[in-house]
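Annex B. Sample input.
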Amino acid sequence: MSTGAMDERDEERRRVAEHIEWQKQGAWVVLWGPYTRRFWAFARWPVIPVGGVVVHAEDPDLLYAEMRYVEREHDFLRWRYGRG
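Annex B, continued. Sample output.
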């Protein structure tokens, strides 16, 4: 596998991470970890549970699903949108 091909895939994954962060409207910082080969999401909520909220997954769809699960678990959607 050439280094150039690896860089192109990493760049694509970085763009995917940026898109997920954009979709979440600043509630999360989302990164692609080229060393860990995982997507990482760090909650940026005004009130974050003790220890923070960090989720990760190898696949962007799994990451997004995990982010939604954690948002429901910590009642983030009720806080953000005023509904439950």
